[in-house]
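User: Hi! I'm a student and our assignment asks us to look at how structure tokens line up with a sequence. Could you show me two examples?

Assistant: Happy to help. In each example below, the sequence comes first and the structure tokens follow. Example one:
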Amino acid sequence: MAVKKAVTITRRTKSAEASAGVDTLTAIAQVGWGDGGHDSSTGDVNDPDPDGTQAAGEFLVKDIENVTVNGTNAVIEVVLSADEGNGRNISSVALYDEDADPVVFVNFSPKGKDSDTIIEIDLTEEH
């Protein structure tokens, strides 16, 4: 499965400010689900825009269910349940911090979604 990821300019700015002691880095709190992370005619994965404000084709934002730390990585667990996103080809997610600012955009090969399908995605934020 093709995957393309972009850390946002907003997050990079906040990280630099935290490193300089000017501000603190806010935790990741939500995930946005979208169906616009791929070219609908070819299925090719689009490059995410680091200046973007939401997941490509975003249709739902949910709170993060669980975060674990594994060394220098934060593993973020999110689930699109049986009654969410039906009839869509899920191909984009975005992580948002506690200020509702975008952190990272991830586009991937489309996954069809119907009421019999639950999609779980483990995202790793590398530090």
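Example two works the same way, sequence first and then tokens:
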Amino acid sequence: MGYGILSRGTQTRQQAMGLMRDNAREETQRNMQNAQLERAEKTEKVSGTTTGAMAGAYLGAQAGSIGGPAGAAIGAVAGYALTELF
């Protein structure tokens, strides 16, 4: 009878260790996915800002030589603002 109780205790311990191992694996996976999402958001902001700057520079250049840098600055701000909104 003593062996039955010891065997049941061993089984319970093994089940608990397996569940803890599964939880740790899932947490690691969630952390990796969250980090990947953060990197994607940063990339999107940079891309939007760059696109806005290029479009602003192009449109500003149509107004003359001074308009290009000013248009780029305005476009960069607009591009960043739009990535924050959407």
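Here is something you could point out in your write-up. Helices lie at 2-61, 67-85.
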